[in-house]
Amino acid sequence: MNRLILFCLFALSSIAASSGQSPVTPAGLTATGFERHIELRWQRNTAANILGYRIFRRAGDSGEFQLWKQVDNIPATLDWTGAAQIGNTFQYKIKAVATNGMESDFSDIAAATTQTMSDEALLDMVQRSTFRYFWDFAHPVSGLARERNNGDDNIVTTGGSGFGIMALVVGAERGWVTREEAVNRMVQIVSFLQFADRYHGVFPHWINGTNGNTAPFSQFDDGADLVETAFLMQGLLAARQYFNQDTPLENAVRNVITGLWEDVEWDWFRKNNSPVLYWHWSPNYGWQMNFQLRGFFEAQIVYILAAASPTHPVPGSLYQTGWTSSNYANGAIHFGHPVCCGPFGGGPMFFAHYSYLGFDPRGLKDAYCNYFVRNRNHALIQRDYAVANPENHEGYSANCWGFTSCDSPGGYAAHSISASGDNGTVAPTAALASMPYTPSESLDALRWFYREQGEKLWGLYGFYDAFNLDQNWFATSYLAIDQGPIVAMIENYRSGLLWNLFMQNPEIQPALDAIGFVPDASGTRDFDLTEKGFTGRLWPNPAMGVQPLSLELILGRSQVLSAALWSVDGSLQRNLIDKKVFTTGTYQESFDPSGLPPGVYFLSVKNDQNQMISQKIILQ
Questions:
Q1: Contacts of 234 (CB under 8 A, 6+ apart)
Q2: For residues 573 and 566, what is the distance between their CA atoms, to the nearest angstrom?
Q3: How far is CA 5 from CA 2, 20, 86, in A?
Q4: Quick check: 230 and 158 in contact, CB under 8 A?
Q5: Residue 331: helix, strand or coil by DSSP?
Q6: Over the stretch 151-169, which tens digit does the pLDDT of each residue have?
Q7: Which residues pair with 94 in a beta bridge?
Q8: Is residue 589 very low, low, confident or very high in pLDDT (cuts 50, 70, 90)?
């Protein structure tokens, strides 16, 4: 009987609210001034009959408030004030609007002043706004990251959630949320993951965020995804090190993460003990996808974690028989930068991000390269390509660069510097998540994205996914896999936090040793400049026989240099520089290769102390 009375009272109150009562006055309105915009936030009204909010604004502290705009039932909005209003103050007040057309009383007034921002302040703004994608827009049941903001709100993404967990760590460290709030979110996340679908300990690419069931990514991809799981584990292992206090909740979080980590049967994904790992397995289609993980692309972290597993490891030699076993090396040089491995130009920029949010590539090399250097070159290639702009796309410059997999006018696609991969679409995540590799160039891009394109490119969760100035197209989408690397890699640039946390896991260093990573101070221009006083690169490489060659020389001190081109049998083919005096600085020397037959050559550059650098050159 009491239940019936309560139900009737609830129903009557709902009818009254929808038919005659004004909405509750909005509370907690705040206004925060940045350089080119002001951000408004207020407490969400949870009543079922709220249609949206009407926002009123005035300049300064006098005069009439004017209706500025009406927004949907989202408790936040942005006012893009632009460059002309820097230093000015604006005041705001809002009303809630019900579905019956009735309005609430005005909220309290909130005011904010815009101001010129330093680089550090811009970095704070970008990180914190992007972090909110994983905090405010997280799935309400699982706490995991939704795939995108313009898709199925119930689909959460495994790899993107790993990136989001790293963003959560950054948010707690920088005080955007309290440690207690972050721990509670981690409890929500790991509790859900314990009972979500897994296959030999491996999660699917997409998960139903409400019930934990697999959401098929494609017809045959309806089971385990080893790569997405590796991205998730990378984030969880960083969180395991961060939440290290001896409290019941943090102890529980660490214990559950350890259990999830130890449950992953990396060795089972060798598919009958083969010498390579496989990306997918389906309970309905078995190994139908049949995608072997042979590099180079975004999945290097899979082999590191597989070798690191305390319960289901693979031998370190699988890195050689699997990951690096198939046309791995790439000796090409673009704009003076060797790419070392990967496809033409290095491929989409996310190849240099996903595996390195936790794995710190600095000061290490395998048999092929130092991956910090490789990734830095990858970013510099993209930046220099944008400067050269061979396809004459609108806007490309030293400040507007970055090509990766992202939304574009024709839908989601992979973008790179290849002719088929460049349609004029630029993704902010490509340049911003390269911040540890190219801080100066990435900061140039950040400033330009915000100050020159922010009116269309900036939203509540930071920069939108992409833009294409050829078509005057700007995405309104956010993707977890693009937002997460922005927060994580900017933090690695600023403090090294996530690199330090992940590498502190006791399983990681023995795995790197087993794989064959060794300490490396060489292979970088900094080393060559310190030890030899010079460095140099000949490009393009490969080159056509009639194409002029450019030798870029960088000198840390004045000295005498000679350069020559040799055949593979050691015969001198061309003297390029003969005992020429160079002072400190950067130089470009141009050479005509005509008359040289196609083939493999070697460049040598040496100083008068017989210290030498060399480079393999291919003429086509």
A1: 162, 166, 301, 305, 355, 357, 358, 359, 502
A2: 5
A3: 5, 22, 58
A4: no
A5: strand
A6: 999 999 999 999 999 999 9
A7: 55
A8: confident
3-state secondary structure of 35: coil
What whole-number distance in Å separates Cα of residue 450 and Cα of residue 440? Answer: 16
- For residues 530 and 527, what is the distance between their CA atoms, to the nearest angstrom? 5
pLDDT: which is higher, 118 or 590: 118
Say if CB 406 and CB 479 are below 8 A apart: yes
Cα gap 75→52, rounded to integer Å: 9
Residue type, 284: N
Model pTM score: 0.86
pLDDT at 529: 55
Helix and strand element counts for the chain (H, E) = 15, 28
**Lowest mean pLDDT across 311-325, 422-436, 468-482, 513-527:** 513-527
Query: What pLDDT band is residue 503 in, cutting at 50, 70 and 90?
Result: very high
Least confident of 36-40, 174-178, 311-315, 595-599: 595-599
Compute the Cα dihedral for 369, 371, 374, 376 and give only its sign. Answer: negative
**Is the distance from CB of 141 to CB of 151 less than 8 angstroms?**
no
Residue 472 neighbours by CB under 8 Å, 6+ apart:
none
Compute the distance between CA of residue 24 and CA of residue 75 in angstroms, rounded to an integer. 14
Predicted pLDDT at 19? 52
Q: Hey, what's the torsion of the CAs at 40, 46, 48, 52, to 10 degrees?
A: 0
Rounded to the nearest integer, the mean pLDDT of the chain is 92
Residue pointed to by tokens 């969180």? 239
Dihedral through CA 388, CA 394, CA 395, CA 401, nearest 10? Answer: -60
Q: What share of the chain has pLDDT > 90, as a percent?
A: 79
- Evaluate whether 230 touches 508 at the Cβ level (below 8 Å): no
Token pair of 87 as six digits: 């230093």
Instruction: Name the more confident of 274 and 567.
Output: 274
- CB within 8 Å of 43: residues ≥ 6 apart: 26, 27, 28, 75
Contact partners, residue 306, CB within 8 Å, separation at least 6: 266, 267, 269, 277, 313, 314, 318
| 2 pLDDT above the threshold of 60 | no
Say whether pLDDT at 558 is over 90: no
Only one residue has tokens 């705009």, namely 69
Report the C-alpha dihedral over residues 400, 331, 532, 381, rounded to 10 degrees.
Answer: 0
Helices (H), 287-370: 300-308, 318
Q: Give one DSSP letter per residue of 164-218, joined into a string.
A: HHHHHHHHHHTTSS-HHHHHHHHHHHHHHHHHS--BTTB--SEEETTT--EE-SS
